[in-house]
Each structure stands twice: as C-alpha cells, then as structure tokens.
Specification:
About 30% of the residues lie in helices and about 25% in strands. By secondary structure, it is of the alpha+beta class.
Length: about 325
C-alpha cells in the first residue's frame, strides 16, 4: 500500500525509468488513473482493546445474546466447530479517517462494526476444487453489527478451540481450519493501491495492446510482463518503511492471482475487495498467507454482507 498518491506516482515513474522492462506511457497513465483508495490497518502488540474498537484477533464485541458464528456444513464431519475471528473494524473510526472524497469510493457503512470470520484452509484453490457446495461462502461470515459499543458483549473464546492445540497464546485445531489468537489494537491510515496484471480492470487495456500495439511497443507481451514486475516489486520502490498488506478496500495485493477470479471466473469485475488480512499480521511472523474478503458491488450497496466470500492464498 502506498501512503499517498504522490508516493505511488513517483514509484510508477521510478520503475519505468530504472527497470529493464519499461512500462509503456499508456500503461503508466492507466496505472495512475486506476490507483484505488485504500485504508491500511496497522496492528500493534498484543494488548486489551477498548470495546468496539478496531482490532485484529481476540474476540468480537457483539449484541447481547449473540453467539460465535459457525460454518454451514454439508455434513457434521466436514467442518470445524467455529469460524476463526479475524478482525473487527470500527466503522465510525473508518468514516473519520476517510472524511474526504475517497470515503464514497470505499462505500461502506459509517456506523457500527464489521466483523470478519473465516476458515482460511477451507478456502484455498485446492480445497475448493475438492469441496462440495460453496466453501468460499460456507466458511465465511461478514457481520455488520450496529449495536452501540457500550451495549455490546465480548464473546468468550469458544470451548471447542480451547480444547484443541495451543501454540503459545494461539489456540487452533489440528488442521488450522480454525484458531483463536490474542487481540491487537489497530490504527487506520489512508493510502492507495495498484492493480495486478490479471485484474479485470486492466484486462481490456492489455487485450487492446495485444491486438493493437501502441507506437514504440515492440512486444505486446512486454506490457503484461512489465506490469507484473511493477506489481511484485512495488515494495522496493518505497524503501525505508514497512509495506502494509492488511487493508480495507483497494485492489487485492495478491499472493497468486486476483482472488476475484477464484470466486467468480465469469465476471470477476462484479466483485470488490472488502478487506484483506495478512496472516503474519494476525498470527505472527512464522505464519503465512493472506485472506481476502470479497463482496459483489451490488450486495455492498444493499448492505447485504451475507453475499461475502473468502479466498485464501499463500505462496
């Protein structure tokens, strides 16, 4: 995630000047035009978080009487007892951070909290190929809780997880399908993200390059290759600070291919990223992978978070 639009534009310019596979001027301009507003989620050390605040891990603050979400199994044997809790986003805080023209582009509510639950290992490409039903939906919950923070209750760690394996302060089942970890307070920071070469937003441009190469572009494939090089080396273009990959909105920072293509291979452009979580941010430096929470544009406009899906990738 770039911390400012100016930083992103400087990175695009530096890449086109310094890398052997130069970005064509048309793609430079397109990248600049397609910069997407994003809110980075910077997590601190494990500590108790105020009720209703933005955090990674821990336990959710929900309405009195609420229970920990569970998967929708096709049978009693095919799913863990609980979904893992990833994050809680204070939407009033998010609204304050995005109190400019970019707020409308994120298009999320400005009251209550968004709560994110999933079983990441059940939502990999390999697991999806082998699973019945719709695992990206069955093993995902995004809940919009509008209960005033002072009226919420903090749910207890599910007993089923406490009975499983413990690695330090992290509880998890044998397959790591579900887990619980101590909470981390978070700070929200505005920024910008770019698009990967297989993003639906860039598809038409790259197809056009392949059939109608711009002047000065000897090899149309060079554009796709150069875009891929920029995407994967963006972090090196902003030295001196930590690169953020846990973020709200924005174009997915992929570990493999654009996750929207995995949830809908016929119309990935109909989907947008709601939240992506780096597992090292959540569980510590020895974990790996990223969970992508995705939702159709029209479902987000209707505030129907039951349509959300999760895709999990790791290199």
């Amino acid at each position: 995630m770039f911390h400012s639009r100016d930083e992103a534009l400087k990175a695009i310019a530096a890449f086109s000047q310094n890398y052997p596979q130069h970005l064509h001027e048309g793609l430079n301009q397109l990248l600049a035009e397609q910069l997407i507003p994003v809110v980075g989620v910077h997590s601190g050390e494990h500590s108790e978080c105020p009720t209703g605040s933005t955090k990674l891990g821990g336990s959710p603050d929900m309405a009195p009487g609420a229970t920990w979400p569970v998967p929708d199994p096709l049978s009693a044997e095919d799913a863990p007892a609980q979904l893992a809790f990833f994050a809680q986003i204070d939407l009033a805080e998010l609204a304050r951070v995005t109190a400019d023209r970019r707020a409308a582009e994120l298009d999320v509510p400005d009251t209550g909290r968004l709560l994110f639950f999933a079983c990441p290992e059940k939502a990999t490409a390999d697991a999806i190929d082998e699973a019945e039903g719709d695992p990206q939906r069955r093993f995902c919950r995004v809940i919009w809780d509008t209960t005033p923070a002072e009226e919420t209750q903090r749910l207890a760690v599910p007993a089923a997880l406490q009975e499983d394996t413990s690695d330090g302060d992290v509880f998890h089942d044998q397959q790591w399908d579900s887990f619980w970890c101590p909470e981390k307070p978070c700070t929200l920071i505005l920024g910008w993200s770019t698009l990967g070469e297989d993003s639906p937003e860039l598809h038409d441009y790259l197809e056009h390059c392949a059939t109608n190469p711009p002047a000065g572009l000897a090899d149309p494939e060079q554009q796709s290759e150069a875009l891929n090089e920029f995407y994967w080396n963006a972090e090196e273009l902003v030295p001196g600070r930590e690169w953020t990959t846990t973020m709200i909105g924005g174009g997915p920072i992929c570990e493999q291919s654009d996750p929207r293509g995995y949830v809908d291979d016929t119309n990935p452009a109909a989907w947008q990223q709601l939240f992506q979580v780096s597992l090292p941010d959540l569980l510590g430096e020895y974990s790996e992978g990223t969970a992508y929470f995705l939702i159709p544009h029209d479902a987000l406009r209707r505030r129907d978070f039951s349509e959300a899906r999760v895709e999990f990738q790791q290199t």
